[in-house]
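pinned: reference chain
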Amino acid sequence: MININETIARELAVPVRHINAAVGLLDEGATVPFIARYRKEVTGGLDDIQMRELENRLRYLREMEERREVILKSIREQDKLTDDLEKKVLAADTKSRLEDLYLPYKPKRRTKGQIAIEAGLLPLADALLADSQLDPEVIANNYLNEALGITTTKEALDGAKYILMERFAEDAELIQTLRQLLWEEGKLCAAVVPGKENDGAKFSDYFEHKEPLKTTPSHRALAMFRGRNEGFLTLNIQLDFDGERDPCEGIIARHWSLNLNDVPAARWLSEVVRWTWKVKLGLHLEMDLLSKLREGADQEAIDVFSRNLKDLLLAAPAGPRATIGLDPGLRTGVKVAVIDATGKVVDHCTIFPTPPQKRIAESEAVLLALINKHSIELIAIGNGTASRETERFVADMLNAKPELRVTKVMVNESGASIYSASEYASRELPDLDVTIRGAVSIARRLQDPLAELVKIEPKSIGVGQYQHDVSQLALSRSLDAVIEDCVNAVGVDVNTASSALLTRVSGLNPTTAGNLVEYRDEHGMFADRAALKSVPRIGDKTYEQAAGFLRVMNGGNPLDRSAVHPESYRVVDKIVQTAGGDLNTIIGNSTFLKSLQAERFVDEQVGLPTIVDILSELDKPGRDPRPEFKTATFKEGVEKVSDLEPGMLLEGVVTNVTNFGAFVDVGVHQDGLVHISALADKFVKDPHEVVKAGDIIKVKVMDVDLNRKRIALSCRLNDDVVPQDKQSRDERRHKKPSKPTARAEKPAEKAPSGAFASAFANATKSRR
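pinned: its structure tokens
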């Protein structure tokens, strides 16, 4: 049996004593953020990324151990557990290997092979397997038994065939060999379901598609799986080979030492091998390997979503500044919400500056009155329908009133409507209409993206790649971990945080977070961290896990607004004594703090890593790890896809990063795609190495497809624009969409209003 901790230590290249300590802390209920931040001594400094990997691997290996015990018990109860089999089961290092070994002993319904054995045909099967010189027709005559339903030699030989087919198909070593061959050399083949060519046109790139199975990129694999699930594609795995016999049949024959040439039983044995592969093993392994491909593609898609979500959550906050949130609309008007520096709603209304009403003067008067009344510094404009019309209206108003010193910012509103109709929004903003709640969310996510986005189901934020196709359990688990890590990396103001934000703090849960908010509402703001212990159900263990991540910004002890854990306050007292002053004299005193030797303060309870972290925190207490707030400037006059011209240089915001490139909002209600090949002047293996969600970048328009609303962009501003098909842009603008023929673009993910550009289609075709 494998040693779980030793296995993880080997995989992470970490001493096993550190893995033992980390696993012990997890088992005691410690959270990953707490262990990574405050238990570095015992884990050897494992960071949150390593701890998440450890946590996931620990879960997998423990599940495998539970399954191993079940399998051993089942085989033992059947009285079929030999010493050799037990060794193999104990040595199995993957779930699939375990299931291969268990296959012959797995309880199953009555099979044709079992029926044949009951009919007395097992000796016939064994005889033909052992001696290929026997004539099957002759020896089969010895096993005719009318009472058992075996009246002809064909029936006898068919029964023997079923017995051997099941025996061959349940051989774990053979299965492992064939699986490895198919994975290494197999081709994933996709084809259109006959008669579905027009309905499935968005999958037309896969109507006649073949590529190596093990190197199929996740986004293409998920696209093909989606096409199959929607009934437009068929998928199978094939091996390229010369000759009549499939190499897999040859492997089966060699594994069982079968002579299939110039012997009396050759023809019959060949049929057994062929049927074993076609009926039993081929289908089983194809399903198995497609599942493996799907799992790998799922994980890559989840990783992409997780990285994008992390970048979005850790985007620069505008900070505590009075803000107006505008949720644009046409017929129903623009919803307006005014929030103060703390995020509290202080006013709201609806204005109609956009078509069809276009009550511009009236809308301007209302907005100016709100700006002056509430000392507004920022205007957050949602980037949905009518956003550019609304932005132009606001820009004209602000240009006419430069003395206001108000900044307008376009804000990604993905998920705002989901939040507006949620149960949480109903509790948080019970007196506001659903439509106004959206404007509130837009304003708040400009002030602090992290604090607001934690209220929204992460899958609704729209920064993923095929997120609706992957394992929802695995996706939720990964995204929850990302949110937890981000929240605790930034820290939370305990006196202003919502229950949604507090729920994500290490050690807290919906119940304790709700209790904390209720206690705060009833007793007023917390004066120090110690007061948290008075909250119902926040005991010593919960306090230990949470205290370091909760900030009391205006309390009496400056350490309460830092990341220094209360358990380490005594260390700070020692440092203060060394300075010969008080705490306020050393906080932010870089010269003094850098002059200290951290080793001087190490004792039996606190190690060097913690001392180093404390000195760093005292230098810049409560430092926010997020970047400085900046805004993108969209080009004036470019508001619709039809306003774009190839060759234009634009500024935009990265909204989503996938394995094949980055989607960029340039202010035309449709994200453009910078294909991975156009992200930089150098080769880019992973787009995340170059850009992340929320980045403000310069791009060049390479191509615009008005019919399909697809925009190809490039970060290489010196790239030449290639003329398109010798037809003018005006001709393409008015051309009616034609019916799809042979090949079109790959299906695009709907999430962040993005689209694959023709550059992507061309690039992928060239690779094939």
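why pinned: The chain is about 45% helix and 10% strand. The radius of gyration is 33 Å.
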